[in-house]
Design goal:
The chain is mostly helical. The protein contains 15 helices and two strands. It folds into two domains: about 200 residues, Growth Hormone, Chain: A; about 230 residues, MFS general substrate transporter like domains (Growth Hormone, Chain: A), CATH 1.20.1250.
Length: about 450
Protein backbone atom coordinates (compact mmCIF):
# COMPACT_ATOMS: atom_id res chain seq x y z
CA UNK A 1 0.00 0.00 0.00
CA UNK A 2 1.25 3.48 -0.79
CA UNK A 3 2.07 5.50 2.36
CA UNK A 4 0.35 8.61 1.00
CA UNK A 5 -2.85 6.65 0.43
CA UNK A 6 -2.78 5.35 3.97
CA UNK A 7 -2.18 8.81 5.36
CA UNK A 8 -5.10 10.24 3.41
CA UNK A 9 -7.45 7.40 4.34
CA UNK A 10 -6.89 7.59 8.06
CA UNK A 11 -5.42 10.20 10.39
CA UNK A 12 -2.29 9.35 12.31
CA UNK A 13 -3.84 10.40 15.63
CA UNK A 14 -6.31 8.23 17.50
CA UNK A 15 -8.53 9.86 20.12
CA UNK A 16 -7.67 9.32 23.78
CA UNK A 17 -11.06 7.67 24.55
CA UNK A 18 -10.47 5.20 21.71
CA UNK A 19 -6.98 4.40 23.02
CA UNK A 20 -8.30 3.94 26.55
CA UNK A 21 -11.28 1.85 25.45
CA UNK A 22 -9.04 -0.35 23.33
CA UNK A 23 -6.47 -0.75 26.09
CA UNK A 24 -9.09 -1.53 28.75
CA UNK A 25 -9.62 -4.98 27.25
CA UNK A 26 -6.07 -5.86 28.27
CA UNK A 27 -7.26 -6.09 31.87
CA UNK A 28 -9.51 -9.02 30.99
CA UNK A 29 -7.04 -10.48 28.54
CA UNK A 30 -4.18 -10.45 31.04
CA UNK A 31 -6.31 -11.88 33.83
CA UNK A 32 -7.36 -14.66 31.48
CA UNK A 33 -3.75 -15.35 30.50
CA UNK A 34 -1.95 -14.86 33.82
CA UNK A 35 -4.36 -16.41 36.27
CA UNK A 36 -4.43 -19.88 34.67
CA UNK A 37 -0.68 -19.72 34.01
CA UNK A 38 0.00 -18.95 37.66
CA UNK A 39 -2.91 -20.58 39.48
CA UNK A 40 -3.81 -23.68 37.46
CA UNK A 41 -0.60 -25.53 38.43
CA UNK A 42 -1.29 -24.79 42.12
CA UNK A 43 -4.98 -25.69 41.72
CA UNK A 44 -4.25 -28.95 39.94
CA UNK A 45 -1.33 -30.06 42.14
CA UNK A 46 -2.51 -28.98 45.61
CA UNK A 47 -6.33 -29.15 45.27
CA UNK A 48 -7.11 -31.76 42.61
CA UNK A 49 -4.14 -33.97 43.47
CA UNK A 50 -2.81 -34.15 39.91
CA UNK A 51 0.91 -35.04 39.65
CA UNK A 52 3.14 -32.19 38.47
CA UNK A 53 4.07 -33.82 35.17
CA UNK A 54 0.43 -34.59 34.39
CA UNK A 55 -0.59 -31.02 35.27
CA UNK A 56 2.02 -29.72 32.85
CA UNK A 57 0.61 -31.85 30.05
CA UNK A 58 -2.95 -30.73 30.90
CA UNK A 59 -1.79 -27.21 30.11
CA UNK A 60 0.41 -28.09 27.13
CA UNK A 61 -2.17 -30.13 25.17
CA UNK A 62 -4.77 -27.30 24.89
CA UNK A 63 -2.00 -24.89 23.96
CA UNK A 64 -0.92 -27.25 21.17
CA UNK A 65 -4.42 -26.87 19.71
CA UNK A 66 -3.93 -23.11 19.76
CA UNK A 67 -1.15 -23.49 17.19
CA UNK A 68 -3.94 -24.15 14.69
CA UNK A 69 -6.80 -22.26 16.34
CA UNK A 70 -5.24 -18.79 16.50
CA UNK A 71 -4.16 -18.57 12.84
CA UNK A 72 -7.58 -19.91 11.79
CA UNK A 73 -9.35 -17.26 13.86
CA UNK A 74 -7.02 -14.61 12.45
CA UNK A 75 -7.65 -15.64 8.86
CA UNK A 76 -11.39 -15.83 9.51
CA UNK A 77 -11.42 -12.31 10.94
CA UNK A 78 -9.43 -11.13 7.89
CA UNK A 79 -12.08 -12.53 5.55
CA UNK A 80 -14.81 -10.75 7.54
CA UNK A 81 -12.89 -7.54 8.22
CA UNK A 82 -14.83 -5.56 5.59
CA UNK A 83 -18.29 -7.15 5.91
CA UNK A 84 -18.41 -7.67 9.70
CA UNK A 85 -15.37 -5.88 11.03
CA UNK A 86 -13.45 -7.43 13.93
CA UNK A 87 -15.86 -6.23 16.63
CA UNK A 88 -18.21 -9.29 16.47
CA UNK A 89 -15.24 -11.54 17.25
CA UNK A 90 -14.44 -9.41 20.29
CA UNK A 91 -18.08 -9.70 21.43
CA UNK A 92 -18.25 -13.49 21.10
CA UNK A 93 -14.79 -13.98 22.57
CA UNK A 94 -15.48 -11.72 25.55
CA UNK A 95 -18.70 -13.46 26.54
CA UNK A 96 -17.42 -17.00 26.03
CA UNK A 97 -14.13 -16.26 27.80
CA UNK A 98 -16.00 -15.19 30.91
CA UNK A 99 -18.08 -18.36 31.10
CA UNK A 100 -15.27 -20.79 30.29
CA UNK A 101 -13.00 -19.16 32.88
CA UNK A 102 -15.50 -20.24 35.54
CA UNK A 103 -15.59 -23.73 34.02
CA UNK A 104 -11.84 -24.19 34.57
CA UNK A 105 -12.22 -23.72 38.31
CA UNK A 106 -15.32 -25.90 38.66
CA UNK A 107 -13.70 -29.34 38.36
CA UNK A 108 -15.71 -32.19 39.94
CA UNK A 109 -14.07 -34.15 42.76
CA UNK A 110 -12.89 -37.19 40.82
CA UNK A 111 -11.19 -40.02 42.67
CA UNK A 112 -8.69 -40.59 39.87
CA UNK A 113 -6.07 -37.94 39.09
CA UNK A 114 -6.36 -39.05 35.45
CA UNK A 115 -10.04 -38.08 35.41
CA UNK A 116 -9.22 -34.70 36.95
CA UNK A 117 -6.43 -34.15 34.42
CA UNK A 118 -8.75 -35.01 31.51
CA UNK A 119 -11.39 -32.58 32.79
CA UNK A 120 -8.82 -29.81 33.14
CA UNK A 121 -7.43 -30.54 29.68
CA UNK A 122 -10.84 -30.23 28.02
CA UNK A 123 -12.02 -27.24 30.04
CA UNK A 124 -8.76 -25.40 29.42
CA UNK A 125 -8.94 -26.24 25.70
CA UNK A 126 -12.47 -24.84 25.51
CA UNK A 127 -11.45 -21.71 27.42
CA UNK A 128 -8.39 -21.23 25.21
CA UNK A 129 -10.56 -21.44 22.09
CA UNK A 130 -12.97 -18.85 23.48
CA UNK A 131 -10.09 -16.57 24.35
CA UNK A 132 -8.67 -16.88 20.83
CA UNK A 133 -11.88 -15.35 19.46
CA UNK A 134 -11.03 -12.25 21.47
CA UNK A 135 -7.24 -12.12 21.67
CA UNK A 136 -6.37 -12.55 17.98
CA UNK A 137 -8.69 -9.84 16.60
CA UNK A 138 -7.71 -7.69 19.59
CA UNK A 139 -4.07 -7.83 18.56
CA UNK A 140 -4.99 -7.30 14.89
CA UNK A 141 -6.86 -4.09 15.68
CA UNK A 142 -3.69 -2.47 17.05
CA UNK A 143 -2.10 -2.60 13.59
CA UNK A 144 -5.22 -1.10 11.98
CA UNK A 145 -5.98 1.82 14.28
CA UNK A 146 -3.23 3.97 12.74
CA UNK A 147 -0.71 3.84 9.91
CA UNK A 148 1.84 5.83 11.95
CA UNK A 149 4.40 3.61 13.78
CA UNK A 150 4.87 6.15 16.57
CA UNK A 151 1.10 6.42 17.13
CA UNK A 152 0.80 2.63 17.22
CA UNK A 153 3.47 2.56 19.91
CA UNK A 154 1.48 5.10 21.95
CA UNK A 155 -1.70 3.04 21.51
CA UNK A 156 0.11 -0.08 22.68
CA UNK A 157 1.72 1.76 25.59
CA UNK A 158 -1.75 2.51 26.98
CA UNK A 159 -2.71 -1.11 26.40
CA UNK A 160 0.34 -2.29 28.34
CA UNK A 161 -0.55 0.06 31.19
CA UNK A 162 -3.96 -1.58 31.47
CA UNK A 163 -2.23 -4.92 31.07
CA UNK A 164 -0.34 -4.09 34.27
CA UNK A 165 -3.66 -3.76 36.08
CA UNK A 166 -4.55 -7.22 34.79
CA UNK A 167 -1.23 -8.55 36.08
CA UNK A 168 -1.88 -7.10 39.52
CA UNK A 169 -5.41 -8.51 39.67
CA UNK A 170 -4.62 -11.86 38.04
CA UNK A 171 -1.10 -12.73 39.12
CA UNK A 172 -1.08 -10.66 42.30
CA UNK A 173 -4.46 -11.29 43.87
CA UNK A 174 -5.85 -14.52 42.41
CA UNK A 175 -4.33 -16.73 45.10
CA UNK A 176 -5.11 -14.39 48.03
CA UNK A 177 -8.67 -13.94 46.72
CA UNK A 178 -9.11 -17.71 46.48
CA UNK A 179 -7.85 -18.08 50.04
CA UNK A 180 -10.17 -15.31 51.21
CA UNK A 181 -13.21 -17.04 49.71
CA UNK A 182 -12.45 -20.33 51.45
CA UNK A 183 -10.08 -23.24 51.67
CA UNK A 184 -9.44 -25.67 48.84
CA UNK A 185 -11.91 -26.15 45.98
CA UNK A 186 -14.52 -23.65 47.24
CA UNK A 187 -12.12 -20.73 47.32
CA UNK A 188 -10.79 -21.39 43.84
CA UNK A 189 -14.29 -21.81 42.42
CA UNK A 190 -15.51 -18.50 43.84
CA UNK A 191 -12.36 -16.75 42.67
CA UNK A 192 -12.94 -18.20 39.18
CA UNK A 193 -16.51 -16.91 39.14
CA UNK A 194 -15.48 -13.40 40.15
CA UNK A 195 -12.56 -13.24 37.74
CA UNK A 196 -14.62 -14.64 34.89
CA UNK A 197 -17.08 -11.76 35.32
CA UNK A 198 -14.26 -9.19 35.39
CA UNK A 199 -12.78 -10.64 32.19
CA UNK A 200 -16.10 -10.44 30.40
CA UNK A 201 -16.79 -6.82 31.39
CA UNK A 202 -13.30 -5.61 30.43
CA UNK A 203 -13.41 -7.33 27.05
CA UNK A 204 -16.86 -5.94 26.28
CA UNK A 205 -15.58 -2.40 26.88
CA UNK A 206 -13.09 -2.98 24.06
CA UNK A 207 -15.83 -4.41 21.85
CA UNK A 208 -17.96 -1.26 22.17
CA UNK A 209 -14.90 0.91 21.53
CA UNK A 210 -13.67 -0.94 18.45
CA UNK A 211 -17.18 -1.07 16.99
CA UNK A 212 -17.22 2.73 16.61
CA UNK A 213 -13.53 3.37 15.82
CA UNK A 214 -12.42 4.00 12.23
CA UNK A 215 -9.63 1.67 11.05
CA UNK A 216 -6.92 2.09 8.41
CA UNK A 217 -8.41 0.83 5.12
CA UNK A 218 -6.62 -1.70 2.94
CA UNK A 219 -6.87 -2.10 -0.81
CA UNK A 220 -7.92 -5.73 -0.74
CA UNK A 221 -8.80 -7.20 2.67
CA UNK A 222 -9.08 -10.96 2.60
CA UNK A 223 -8.32 -13.99 4.67
CA UNK A 224 -6.12 -16.99 4.33
CA UNK A 225 -5.43 -18.33 0.87
CA UNK A 226 -3.29 -21.32 1.71
CA UNK A 227 0.21 -21.42 0.28
CA UNK A 228 0.19 -17.75 -0.69
CA UNK A 229 -0.23 -16.64 2.91
CA UNK A 230 2.31 -19.16 4.15
CA UNK A 231 4.77 -17.71 1.67
CA UNK A 232 3.89 -14.20 2.84
CA UNK A 233 4.58 -15.17 6.45
CA UNK A 234 7.94 -16.73 5.60
CA UNK A 235 8.92 -13.94 3.23
CA UNK A 236 8.42 -11.37 5.99
CA UNK A 237 11.83 -11.97 7.59
CA UNK A 238 11.44 -9.27 10.25
CA UNK A 239 8.27 -11.03 11.41
CA UNK A 240 9.93 -14.46 11.44
CA UNK A 241 12.88 -13.17 13.45
CA UNK A 242 10.72 -11.25 15.92
CA UNK A 243 8.25 -14.11 16.42
CA UNK A 244 11.01 -16.68 16.99
CA UNK A 245 12.86 -14.55 19.52
CA UNK A 246 9.63 -13.63 21.30
CA UNK A 247 8.61 -17.30 21.49
CA UNK A 248 11.87 -18.23 23.19
CA UNK A 249 11.62 -15.29 25.59
CA UNK A 250 8.03 -16.13 26.55
CA UNK A 251 8.87 -19.79 27.12
CA UNK A 252 11.24 -18.60 29.83
CA UNK A 253 8.56 -16.34 31.25
CA UNK A 254 6.07 -19.21 31.17
CA UNK A 255 8.43 -21.19 33.38
CA UNK A 256 8.51 -18.45 36.01
CA UNK A 257 4.73 -18.10 35.92
CA UNK A 258 4.34 -21.83 36.51
CA UNK A 259 6.35 -21.90 39.71
CA UNK A 260 5.82 -18.30 40.90
CA UNK A 261 3.20 -19.32 43.45
CA UNK A 262 5.06 -22.48 44.44
CA UNK A 263 8.25 -20.43 44.98
CA UNK A 264 6.48 -18.19 47.48
CA UNK A 265 4.82 -21.15 49.18
CA UNK A 266 7.92 -23.36 49.57
CA UNK A 267 10.91 -20.99 49.40
CA UNK A 268 9.65 -17.63 50.66
CA UNK A 269 7.13 -19.49 52.87
CA UNK A 270 4.61 -16.65 52.57
CA UNK A 271 2.28 -16.70 49.53
CA UNK A 272 0.72 -13.40 50.64
CA UNK A 273 3.92 -11.70 49.44
CA UNK A 274 2.81 -12.42 45.87
CA UNK A 275 0.37 -9.53 46.04
CA UNK A 276 3.08 -7.09 47.15
CA UNK A 277 5.45 -8.11 44.35
CA UNK A 278 2.81 -7.97 41.65
CA UNK A 279 1.37 -4.66 42.80
CA UNK A 280 4.76 -3.00 42.52
CA UNK A 281 5.36 -4.74 39.20
CA UNK A 282 2.09 -3.24 37.98
CA UNK A 283 3.00 0.21 39.30
CA UNK A 284 6.32 0.03 37.47
CA UNK A 285 4.47 -0.40 34.17
CA UNK A 286 2.47 2.76 34.77
CA UNK A 287 5.76 4.59 35.19
CA UNK A 288 7.75 2.66 32.63
CA UNK A 289 5.48 2.97 29.61
CA UNK A 290 5.63 6.77 29.25
CA UNK A 291 9.39 6.58 29.86
CA UNK A 292 9.78 3.86 27.21
CA UNK A 293 7.78 5.88 24.66
CA UNK A 294 10.05 8.85 25.40
CA UNK A 295 13.23 6.75 25.12
CA UNK A 296 12.04 5.45 21.77
CA UNK A 297 12.61 8.94 20.38
CA UNK A 298 16.35 8.42 20.88
CA UNK A 299 16.85 4.65 20.97
CA UNK A 300 15.64 2.10 18.43
CA UNK A 301 12.94 -0.42 19.27
CA UNK A 302 15.52 -3.16 18.77
CA UNK A 303 17.82 -1.66 21.40
CA UNK A 304 15.02 -1.18 23.91
CA UNK A 305 13.84 -4.76 23.37
CA UNK A 306 17.34 -6.04 24.20
CA UNK A 307 17.58 -3.81 27.28
CA UNK A 308 14.27 -5.22 28.55
CA UNK A 309 15.39 -8.82 28.03
CA UNK A 310 18.76 -8.36 29.76
CA UNK A 311 17.23 -6.50 32.70
CA UNK A 312 14.51 -9.11 33.11
CA UNK A 313 17.06 -11.95 33.15
CA UNK A 314 19.21 -10.19 35.75
CA UNK A 315 16.23 -9.65 38.06
CA UNK A 316 15.18 -13.26 37.55
CA UNK A 317 18.55 -14.53 38.82
CA UNK A 318 18.32 -12.15 41.78
CA UNK A 319 15.35 -14.13 43.15
CA UNK A 320 17.80 -16.90 44.10
CA UNK A 321 19.04 -14.59 46.85
CA UNK A 322 15.61 -13.46 48.07
CA UNK A 323 14.48 -14.08 51.62
CA UNK A 324 15.05 -12.85 55.18
CA UNK A 325 18.75 -13.67 54.93
CA UNK A 326 19.12 -11.21 52.04
CA UNK A 327 18.11 -8.20 54.13
CA UNK A 328 20.36 -9.35 56.98
CA UNK A 329 23.32 -9.70 54.60
CA UNK A 330 22.82 -6.23 53.17
CA UNK A 331 22.52 -4.74 56.66
CA UNK A 332 25.69 -6.49 57.81
CA UNK A 333 27.85 -5.66 54.77
CA UNK A 334 26.62 -2.18 53.82
CA UNK A 335 25.06 -0.81 56.98
CA UNK A 336 21.89 0.05 55.03
CA UNK A 337 18.83 -0.74 57.19
CA UNK A 338 16.67 -2.38 54.55
CA UNK A 339 13.77 -4.76 55.17
CA UNK A 340 12.66 -7.84 53.27
CA UNK A 341 9.44 -6.03 52.32
CA UNK A 342 11.35 -3.18 50.70
CA UNK A 343 13.56 -5.59 48.77
CA UNK A 344 10.54 -7.53 47.51
CA UNK A 345 8.82 -4.32 46.41
CA UNK A 346 11.98 -3.06 44.67
CA UNK A 347 12.57 -6.37 42.93
CA UNK A 348 8.95 -6.53 41.77
CA UNK A 349 9.12 -2.93 40.52
CA UNK A 350 12.31 -3.43 38.49
CA UNK A 351 11.24 -6.84 37.16
CA UNK A 352 7.95 -5.41 36.00
CA UNK A 353 9.71 -2.40 34.49
CA UNK A 354 12.06 -4.43 32.31
CA UNK A 355 9.26 -6.82 31.37
CA UNK A 356 7.05 -3.98 30.18
CA UNK A 357 9.87 -2.47 28.11
CA UNK A 358 10.50 -5.55 25.99
CA UNK A 359 6.77 -6.37 25.82
CA UNK A 360 5.86 -2.95 24.42
CA UNK A 361 8.69 -3.10 21.91
CA UNK A 362 7.68 -6.62 20.80
CA UNK A 363 4.06 -5.58 20.21
CA UNK A 364 5.09 -2.36 18.48
CA UNK A 365 7.52 -4.22 16.23
CA UNK A 366 4.75 -6.70 15.42
CA UNK A 367 2.51 -3.91 14.12
CA UNK A 368 5.48 -2.64 12.10
CA UNK A 369 5.93 -6.02 10.43
CA UNK A 370 2.19 -6.19 9.68
CA UNK A 371 2.27 -2.69 8.20
CA UNK A 372 5.31 -3.70 6.17
CA UNK A 373 3.39 -6.62 4.65
CA UNK A 374 0.36 -4.41 4.00
CA UNK A 375 2.50 -1.76 2.29
CA UNK A 376 4.24 -4.37 0.14
CA UNK A 377 1.15 -6.33 -0.92
CA UNK A 378 -1.82 -4.00 -0.41
CA UNK A 379 -3.55 -6.90 1.35
CA UNK A 380 -4.88 -6.88 4.91
CA UNK A 381 -3.37 -9.91 6.64
CA UNK A 382 -3.19 -8.48 10.13
CA UNK A 383 -5.43 -11.26 11.44
CA UNK A 384 -3.18 -13.95 10.01
CA UNK A 385 0.03 -12.42 11.35
CA UNK A 386 -1.57 -11.69 14.71
CA UNK A 387 -2.97 -15.22 14.87
CA UNK A 388 0.41 -16.82 14.31
CA UNK A 389 2.06 -14.44 16.78
CA UNK A 390 -0.66 -15.07 19.36
CA UNK A 391 -0.43 -18.84 18.87
CA UNK A 392 3.30 -18.77 19.48
CA UNK A 393 2.74 -16.69 22.60
CA UNK A 394 0.22 -19.12 24.03
CA UNK A 395 2.25 -22.21 23.14
CA UNK A 396 5.27 -20.64 24.83
CA UNK A 397 3.21 -20.11 27.98
CA UNK A 398 2.21 -23.78 27.80
CA UNK A 399 5.66 -25.13 27.00
CA UNK A 400 7.05 -23.40 30.09
CA UNK A 401 4.65 -25.22 32.47
CA UNK A 402 5.24 -28.54 30.68
CA UNK A 403 9.00 -28.20 31.04
CA UNK A 404 8.70 -27.14 34.67
CA UNK A 405 6.29 -29.98 35.41
CA UNK A 406 8.74 -32.55 34.07
CA UNK A 407 11.68 -30.97 35.88
CA UNK A 408 9.79 -30.75 39.18
CA UNK A 409 8.67 -34.37 38.95
CA UNK A 410 12.21 -35.45 38.12
CA UNK A 411 13.40 -33.47 41.15
CA UNK A 412 10.99 -35.31 43.44
CA UNK A 413 8.32 -32.61 43.85
CA UNK A 414 5.15 -34.14 45.37
CA UNK A 415 1.54 -33.16 44.63
CA UNK A 416 -1.36 -33.28 47.10
CA UNK A 417 -5.15 -32.91 47.33
CA UNK A 418 -5.15 -31.30 50.77
CA UNK A 419 -4.65 -27.74 49.56
CA UNK A 420 -1.78 -27.38 52.04
CA UNK A 421 1.96 -27.16 51.42
CA UNK A 422 3.20 -30.74 51.47
CA UNK A 423 6.76 -31.08 52.84
CA UNK A 424 9.27 -31.38 50.01
CA UNK A 425 12.79 -32.78 49.87
CA UNK A 426 15.87 -30.56 49.59
CA UNK A 427 16.35 -31.77 46.03
CA UNK A 428 12.78 -30.77 45.14
CA UNK A 429 13.27 -27.28 46.60
CA UNK A 430 16.54 -26.86 44.70
CA UNK A 431 14.81 -27.86 41.49
CA UNK A 432 12.05 -25.34 42.22
CA UNK A 433 14.61 -22.55 42.66
CA UNK A 434 16.39 -23.48 39.43
CA UNK A 435 13.07 -23.52 37.53
CA UNK A 436 12.17 -20.07 38.81
CA UNK A 437 15.49 -18.23 38.90
CA UNK A 438 18.18 -19.77 36.71
CA UNK A 439 16.79 -21.74 33.77
CA UNK A 440 14.38 -18.96 32.67
CA UNK A 441 17.14 -16.32 32.77
CA UNK A 442 19.41 -18.42 30.54
CA UNK A 443 16.62 -19.13 28.04
CA UNK A 444 15.57 -15.47 28.03
CA UNK A 445 19.06 -14.32 27.14
CA UNK A 446 19.26 -16.98 24.43
CA UNK A 447 16.37 -15.24 22.63
CA UNK A 448 18.72 -12.34 21.87
CA UNK A 449 20.87 -14.64 19.72
CA UNK A 450 17.92 -14.81 17.34
CA UNK A 451 16.72 -11.24 17.77
CA UNK A 452 20.19 -9.90 16.92
CA UNK A 453 19.37 -10.63 13.26
CA UNK A 454 16.26 -8.44 13.26
CA UNK A 455 16.53 -5.70 10.65
CA UNK A 456 14.69 -2.59 11.80
CA UNK A 457 14.14 -1.22 8.32
CA UNK A 458 10.37 -0.95 8.21
Amino acid sequence: MDDQTATTAAPHRVSVPAKVGYGFGAIGGQIFRDTPALILPIYMITVLGIPAWMAGLAILIPKAWIIFCDPLVGAWSDRRSRSWGRAPFLLAGGILSGFTFVLMFSAPDFESPWASAIYMTFSFALASTAYSLFSVPYLSVAAEMSDDPAERTRILAIRVMFLAVGVAVGAGYALPVAQYFGAGWTGFNRMGTLYGAVCMVAMLVTFFTVRRTKMVPSDEPRGASGKEDLRALWANKPFVTLATAYFIALTAQGMTYTVFGLFFVYVMKDPSQLALVNIFAALSVLVGQPVTVWLNRYLSKKTLFAVGIIGWAALCVSWAFAGPQEAAWINAHTGIPVSETVLLALRGFLWGMFNSVYLLMALSLLTDTIAYDRDQSGISRSGLFSGVFSALEKVAFALGPAVCGLLLSAGGFIGTKSGDATPQSAAAITTLILCFCIYPAVIKLASLLIFWHYKERL
